[in-house]
C-alpha cells in the first residue's frame, strides 16, 4: 500500500512538473512572438515609403526616426499647428522654452506642420513606417532608393531650381540652398509609374513650399545629418542613429546642443509663457496664414 501511494505521488508530481514546463513554454513562446520584430515584403515597404521617398534627404532623415516614436506624433502635430506663426530663431527658442516631452527626432519636425499633420492623420501608416525602420532600417532605405529610381527612370524626378537630384547607384535629393528645405507635393499613384502618352511629367512633382531652416535648428540635427545609403547608415546630428527593434526601450540618441525630451515633472509650468499670444493674435495669425512654410516665389 505504501509503495502504491509513493508511486501515485510521484506520478502526480511528474504530471505537475510537465504541466508547469508546458505552461512556461507557452508563455515564453507567446512573449517571444509578441516581441518579434515585424516583417514586411519589399513591395509593402515600397508602398509604405512612397509618400516620402521624393522628399529631400535631410527631411527623410528626420521623418524615419520620428516615426519610431508614434505616440509623440499627435501632440507634436497639435503644437506645431498652434505655433505655425513662429519661424526661424523664434520657433527654435519656443521649442527650447517649452521643454517638450517628445523625442528630439519628433521635435525636429516642428517647423513642418504639414508633415506632422500627414503623420498624425494616418497613425497606422506612421506606426508601420517606424516599426519597419526599427526592424530593418536597411530594407527601408533600399525601398526609398527603389522608389526614387522609378521616379527618375520615368522622368519625373529631376534637378530643378529648388533641389539637386544626383543620379547613380544611389539617388540623392538635396536643396539648392541648404537653408531652404522644400516639401514636395506629388501623387504616388502617378510618379512611380510610366506616364501615359501626352502626360507632362514636369508638373507631377511640385516644390513650391519651403521651410527656412537656419543655424538655430542645428541642435536637432539640421545641417549635420547625412545618409550612407550604401552602408545602410544614418548619421543624425553627427552621430549614427542606432535605435533598433531590440533596444527601442532603452536607446537614447546623443543629440548635441542640449536638446532632449523632458518628463512632465521636469517641465516648468511657466515655460510656455515666453511665446504665448492672445487668442485674438492667434486667430489673426491663423487667418493670415503667416506660416513658416513660406511660398517660394
List keywords for this structure.
2 domains, 11 helices, alpha+beta, 11% strand, 3-stranded antiparallel sheet, 297 residues
What number is the mean pLDDT?
A: 83
Integer-rounded radius of gyration: 25 Å
Helix-strand pattern = HHHHHHHHHEEEHEEEEHE
DSSP helix fraction: 40-55%
State the distance separating the first and last CA atoms.
100 Å
Number of structural units classed as domains: 2
Structural class: alpha+beta
Contiguous helical run count: 11
SS elements, strand count:
8
Strand content: 5-15%
Biggest sheet, open or closed, and with what strands and sense? 3 strands, antiparallel
pLDDT < 50 stretches: 17-33, 272-282, 289-294
Can you list the strand order of the major beta sheet?
3-4-8
What gross morphology would you assign? globular
Walkthrough of the structure:
The chain is α+β, with helices and mostly antiparallel strands. The chain folds into 2 domains: 1-36; 42-295, no CATH class. The chain contains 11 helices and 8 strands. The strands form 3 sheets. It has a 3-stranded antiparallel β-sheet, with helices on one face. β5 and β6 (233-236) form a beta hairpin. The chain is globular and about 60 Å long. Mean pLDDT is 83; it is low at 17-33, 272-282 and 289-294.
SSE map:
Layout: H1 2-35, H2 42-49, H3 57-67, H4 73-82, H5 88-97, H6 104-107, H7 113-121, H8 123-135, H9 137-153, E1 163-166, E2 172-175, E3 180-185, H10 188-191, E4 206-212, E5 226-228, E6 233-236, E7 239-240, H11 279-288, E8 293-295
Antiparallel strand pairs: 1-2, 3-4, 4-8, 5-6, 6-7
Helix pairs in contact: 2-9, 3-8, 4-7, 8-9
Amino acid at each position: 500500500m505504501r509503495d502504491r501511494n509513493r508511486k501515485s505521488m510521484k506520478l502526480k508530481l511528474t504530471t505537475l512538473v510537465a504541466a508547469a514546463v508546458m505552461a512556461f513554454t507557452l508563455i515564453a513562446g507567446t512573449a517571444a512572438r509578441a516581441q518579434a520584430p515585424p516583417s514586411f515584403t519589399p513591395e509593402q515597404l515600397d508602398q509604405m515609403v512612397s509618400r516620402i521617398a521624393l522628399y529631400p534627404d535631410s527631411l527623410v532623415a528626420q521623418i524615419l526616426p520620428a516615426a519610431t516614436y508614434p505616440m509623440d506624433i499627435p501632440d507634436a502635430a497639435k503644437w506645431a499647428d498652434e505655433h505655425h506663426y513662429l519661424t526661424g530663431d523664434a520657433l527654435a527658442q519656443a521649442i527650447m522654452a517649452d521643454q517638450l516631452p517628445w523625442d528630439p527626432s519628433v521635435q525636429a519636425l516642428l517647423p513642418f506642420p504639414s508633415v506632422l499633420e500627414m503623420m498624425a492623420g494616418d497613425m497606422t501608416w506612421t506606426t508601420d513606417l517606424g516599426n519597419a525602420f526599427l526592424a530593418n532600417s536597411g530594407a527601408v532605405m533600399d525601398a526609398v532608393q527603389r522608389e526614387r529610381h522609378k521616379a527618375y527612370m520615368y522622368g519625373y524626378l529631376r534637378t530643378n531650381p529648388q533641389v539637386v537630384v544626383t543620379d547613380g547607384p544611389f539617388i540623392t535629393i538635396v536643396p539648392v540652398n541648404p537653408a531652404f528645405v522644400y516639401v514636395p507635393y506629388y501623387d504616388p499613384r502617378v510618379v512611380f509609374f510610366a506616364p501615359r502618352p501626352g502626360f507632362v511629367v514636369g508638373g507631377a512633382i511640385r516644390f513650391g513650399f519651403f521651410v527656412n531652416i537656419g543655424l538655430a535648428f542645428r541642435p536637432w540635427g539640421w545641417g549635420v545629418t547625412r545618409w550612407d545609403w550604401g552602408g545602410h547608415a544614418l548619421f543624425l546630428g553627427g552621430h549614427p542613429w542606432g535605435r533598433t527593434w531590440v533596444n527601442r526601450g532603452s536607446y537614447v540618441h546623443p543629440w548635441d546642443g542640449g536638446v532632449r525630451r523632458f518628463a512632465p515633472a521636469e517641465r516648468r509650468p511657466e515655460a510656455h509663457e515666453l511665446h504665448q499670444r492672445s487668442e485674438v493674435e492667434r486667430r489673426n495669425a491663423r487667418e493670415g496664414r503667416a506660416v513658416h512654410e513660406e511660398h517660394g516665389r
